[in-house]
Inverse folding.
């Protein structure tokens, strides 16, 4: 099933800065597992390697060492078993919302009437049935990201990989979409690995949080909040939320584990 | 599930506000500018010796005479045939070539320098050579127009490909799109505005190329009308083809803009030009 395992994954970059070659260790022997149906958040300060980890899992960047295993198979490139949601949605501007969703499906070889049917089903899932013929420019930021989510989900991947999907949205839209993502997860049961720099978001959505720092996994924490979480406003009021949030905050800020 | 905030946002941006005072339409401003220039030219042009200059009413009379004698239409036909063929060939070859050079490292390294050099090539100097190869007729005119129009189209397409956001290509990759599909369905549409800009830039160069070709080869077409009337000190008649060529370039430019809005309507939307 949709299990993702990082086995000693390393990634080195070479950057040329003013004629000097700098080596950046973006990932340094990263190990963790996302269980089937689980939501895991990757969090850490910018430059900690969280986005790189996600890109390696997607197959957009090759690992310099180690392997990522998705559903028992080693990642060697992009595949239909993983669906990517990009930070700024990255919809194709010349296609309508529905056509953007269909683009992914067509790449999977789906043709004819089924194509439209599946696209409509997922646009409906994200609440965009009425806006499916609009082009990205005619959609708000939140709606764009909904299309991005529908596009990734439509190919029925085993794992949903999300790169700061709500980071560019305003606070209200972000909260709405966080709730919707959990509702979608409740219905589809997809394994979700998502990158965020938002502490609240990580605790509200995830079952476990992987805190990264300097390309390493600093700590993996369980979120002691039960599912389903139909009302995130209520979740915010719980002591478990506050305590977990504080623990993650401490882990990010000084690396000291709070017991 | 669509939240109210999202809906409102989109509705206010797409609706036109009736309370706003309507600005003067562009065409009115353009027309006023053209009328002003013609009036000024008429006033000052009349004070100049007719050998050294001319003025709109004299040019209009010359136009009428040329049109009545049929000479104008023959010349126009002679000029337009090689012009349109050369220009069409430049688009047909320049766009795929630009896509190839922009899309593939090897092609860029192998062919890029020729395109860059070709753009700066002093074509006028090469016309005598082209005449040796292709003779004095139709073929050489097509070749000159083609060579002048090819490079701006090709370079613009190439630059457009290079400017395609990496993330859009990664969208294709993440859905396991083959390289050819990425080129056709992501790179090409993303490059369209650049291609259209190149095609527009090429209009001016192609018009110049056409006249050069006519000067150098068999004196024919609109170029012949220019040369012959200049030799007869008939400046008013000389201006007729010049103005026709400029009007033609404006018309073509407009046509290309029209096509662009048809094939790439999202571009005007993104830039906010669709609400004018």
């Amino acid at each position: 099933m949709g299990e993702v395992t990082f086995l000693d994954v390393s990634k080195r970059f070479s950057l040329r800065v003013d004629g000097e070659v700098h080596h950046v260790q973006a990932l340094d022997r990263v190990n963790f597992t996302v269980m089937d149906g689980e939501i895991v958040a990757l969090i850490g300060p910018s430059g900690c390697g969280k986005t790189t980890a996600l890109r390696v899992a997607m197959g957009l960047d090759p690992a310099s060492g180690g392997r990522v295993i998705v559903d028992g198979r080693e990642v060697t490139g992009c595949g239909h078993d993983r669906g990517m949601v990009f930070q700024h949605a990255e919809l194709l501007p010349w296609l309508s919302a529905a056509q953007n969703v269909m683009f992914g499906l067509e790449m999977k070889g789906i043709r004819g009437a089924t194509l439209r049917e599946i696209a409509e089903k997922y646009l409906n899932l994200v609440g965009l049935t009425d806006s499916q013929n609009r082009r990205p420019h005619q959609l708000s930021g939140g709606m764009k990201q909904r299309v991005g989510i529908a596009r990734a989900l439509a190919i029925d991947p085993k794992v949903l990989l999300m790169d700061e999907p709500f980071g560019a949205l305003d606070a209200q839209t972000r909260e709405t979409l966080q709730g919707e993502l959990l509702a979608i997860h409740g219905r589809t049961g997809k394994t979700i690995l998502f990158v965020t720099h938002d502490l609240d978001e990580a605790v509200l959505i995830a079952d476990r949080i992987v805190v990264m720092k300097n390309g390493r996994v600093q700590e993996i924490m369980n979120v002691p909040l039960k599912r389903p979480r139909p009302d995130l406003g209520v979740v915010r009021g719980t002591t478990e939320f506050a305590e977990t949030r504080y623990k993650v905050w401490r882990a990010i800020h000084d690396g000291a584990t709070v017991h | 599930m669509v939240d109210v905030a999202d809906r409102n946002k989109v509705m206010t941006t797409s609706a036109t506000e009736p309370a706003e005072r309507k600005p003067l339409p562009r065409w009115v401003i353009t027309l006023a500018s053209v009328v002003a220039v013609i009036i000024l030219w008429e006033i000052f042009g009349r004070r100049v010796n007719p050998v050294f200059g001319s003025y709109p009413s004299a040019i209009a009379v010359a136009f009428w005479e040329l049109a009545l004698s049929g000479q104008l239409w023959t010349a126009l036909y002679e000029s337009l045939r090689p012009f349109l063929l050369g220009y069409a060939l430049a688009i047909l070859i320049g766009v795929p070539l630009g896509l190839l050079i922009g899309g593939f490292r090897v092609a860029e390294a192998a062919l890029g320098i020729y395109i860059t050099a070709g753009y700066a090539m002093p074509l006028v100097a090469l016309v005598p050579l082209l005449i040796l190869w292709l003779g004095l007729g139709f073929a050489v005119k097509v070749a000159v127009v083609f060579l002048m129009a090819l490079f701006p189209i090709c370079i613009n397409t190439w630059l457009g490909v290079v400017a395609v956001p990496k993330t859009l290509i990664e969208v294709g990759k993440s859905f396991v799109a083959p390289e050819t599909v990425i080129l056709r369905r992501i790179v090409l549409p993303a490059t369209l505005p650049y291609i259209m800009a190149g095609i527009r830039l090429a209009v001016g160069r192609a018009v110049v190329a056409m006249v050069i070709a006519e000067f150098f080869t068999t004196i024919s077409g609109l170029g012949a009308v220019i040369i012959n009337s200049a030799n007869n000190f008939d400046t008013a008649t000389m201006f007729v083809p010049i103005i026709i060529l400029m009007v033609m370039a404006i018309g073509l430019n407009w046509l290309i803009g029209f096509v662009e809005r048809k094939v790439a309507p999202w571009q005007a939307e993104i830039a906010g030009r669709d609400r004018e």
User: Anything to note?
Assistant: Confidence is low (pLDDT under 50) at residues 1-15 of chain B. Residues 30 and 36 of chain B are 10 Å apart (CA to CA). DSSP finds twelve helices and no strands in chain B. The two ends of chain B are 33 Å apart (CA to CA).
